[in-house]
Amino acid sequence: MDSQLFARALGNIGPEAVQRTELSRRLHAIQPTPEIQFDGRVSQSTTVGRDQQSGYREGTKDEIRAHRAGVNSIAIDRFEGRLLISGGAEASIKLWDLATAENTQHKFINRPTAVVEKSPSSHQYGINHLCFYPFDSLAFISSSYDHKVKVYSTEHLTPSATFDLDSVIYSHSLSPIADHLLVACATQHAAVRLVDLRSGANTHSLAGHQRAVLSVAWSPHEEYILASGSSDGTARLWDIRRSSNSLGVLDLNDSVGILREDGLGMNARDRHHGKAHTDTVNGVVWSDDGKYLVTAGHDERVRVWDMSTGANALCHFGPIIKNTHLSTLLPLLVPRNSLEPGKQVMFYPNQKEILMFDLFGGTLLKRLRIPGVVAAPIRGSAMQDNLRNRTTSLAWRAGDVGLYSAHSDGIIRVWLPVTPEDAAADKDTAQEAYSDEDESRKRKRDALEEIFRDLTRQKIIFT
Question: What is the four-CA torsion angle of 209, 214, 218, 220, rounded to 10 degrees?
């Protein structure tokens, strides 16, 4: 870092290069931060809804949890990185202010500023997915097992719109750049459903998959392009302006891609056969520049696709990848402005740990072990092994190097960088506190010895 600052002082590099280098260094120093906890126990003044059984019983020794039945999804606003919303398996939604952590005996306790509980106007079953409105953090969108998509006001936590799709909704996506305000929904039916927030219509669908759709994602570069992943093993691309909608599928055996004659996609052949994975595709994520697409599947593979041609980039992440649960699993790609040029880092929610990879090289950079993980082999209807505190969602805090993870045991965990400089500062602080404590003990001991000496000097007379 000193060499970077010296080069900056000489004018050889710009301030952005220094910032990227420092952020990258801090990124590689991420560690679990158990001192920061999310306590979902709330008072009646912060609760919206009628369910009175959402809190923890006073006087019990319950572990501090954000949601008593598990956290299914979290999202952080992309502007200030201050607001966090979480959705629980018990159908509640909680709003957290990350800047108001309460310092209690060397622990920072976050408490929800507002809560939406199960009620006739809110969701009736577990929350599946949450996301902030991409242009303003004053609104967010939720989807649930109760077949409904709801639009909430962040300020009042009241639903301003509700859409019933008559099917279980696994995830949804809203374009970060488009003004068409279409919410793409991955549902139990073999079609991508589109909800128009402007007109209120929810009848349009994109047909092409053969089985349930588990994940959808709008391109961050092309406002009309959408990607989806299905339990039929395919990952499809859609252009909602076309009458046929489908642009084709991604083929795991194609490492060349569809060659385009003019470089703009004109006169290019379509590809409507092939699979992205040999089993269910339950995760679809774009890089923030729109050049790459990342898919995750039940074949326990993560694949990277060059979206200029649709080719398989042949990035191999090894046999360490685990993915068997029948729910949406979304890897997290770190924003490019936090990395050195040409680099891309992916966090993958694996069993018992979160894996940090170099996206293009497939190199494992770090393994973040989840504290207190308990492996509980439970046989579900699909005869698959589940994990009691499976990682269900990842979120990145804008403007800072901070990773937040949601787990099915009800805990929201925080991962922050601890550099050697930070560790040295913490050690000095601890030593100072220990020295102060020793000095206090010494004073008390001297006072007791003086009292003892005074007592022993007195003459005792028996009469």
Answer: -130
